[in-house]
Amino acid sequence: MTVLDRYDPVELGARLAHVRWLAGGTGAGKSTLARVLGERYDVLRYDGDRAEAGYVGRCTPLRQPYMCALLRMSKEERFAARTPEEIFLSMPSLHGETFEFVVEDLLALPADRPVLVDDFRTLPREVAPLLEWREQAVFLLPTPEFRRRALGERYADPDRARANWGDGDHAAALAARLGRDELWDEEVRGQARERELAVVRVDGSWGVEELADEVAAMFRLSEGG
Predict the structure, then answer these.
(1) Which CA distances in Å does 151 have to 25, 51, 168?
(2) Partner of 67 for a Cys bridge, out of 62, 92, 117, 211, CB 3.0 to 4.6 A?
(3) Dihedrals phi, psi of 24, to nearest 5 degrees
């Protein structure tokens, strides 16, 4: 039995009422935005990328088959050797394998101030039952051009590209990554539309400070809670 089975969604939502969820697509600037909001307000940031390392020891073949399969792959196999569709369909988060770990971690954190979850893996269908107001979760979705520029700059560093994709064809891995991310965006957009959750289009027309103003209002951070 997982933490999601032990609690009624309404009860769990009440326990996580201090949490704000920042999710969406990769390359949209979520981490930068989370840092700005953290500097402005007295919030505790939950970094999903850093937390992921802690999921490994908790996953089991029965409950997290996709994650376990991913862990058995080499870095080269994860992207360059597969199509965008294959990568997308095998994502552990697409199948709800990581959300229970996020919730477990959040319940273990202090609840005396807002907690900002910065995690692209969180899907609208998972978080919607836990929200006390619609804009407690915000999904940032970049335009393809914005993401292509952001990821191109990010992985122009050979060491960073090698850390993610090993010694394979980095150009092919980046192309597969971009294709997968477009499919992920479509999934997030569709789920958010069905549940009337907040989606913010990121195309570079707003600076990070302006975006922080908008998201802080949605998160009700300026209200002190």
Answers:
(1) 12, 21, 17
(2) 92
(3) 125, -140
Say how far apart CA 23 and CA 203 lie, in whole Å.
16
The answer to whether 110 touches 95, Cβ cutoff 8 Å, is no
- In which element (H, E) is residue 139 found? strand 137-142
CA–CA–CA angle 204, 183, 186 (5° rounding): 70
What digits encode the pLDDT tens for the residues 166-219?
A: 888 889 999 999 999 999 999 999 999 999 999 999 999 999 999 999 999 999
Contact between 63 and 2 under an 8 Å Cβ cutoff? The reply is yes
Q: What is the pLDDT of residues 50-103, one digit of tens each?
A: 999 999 999 999 999 999 999 999 988 888 889 999 999 999 999 999 999 999
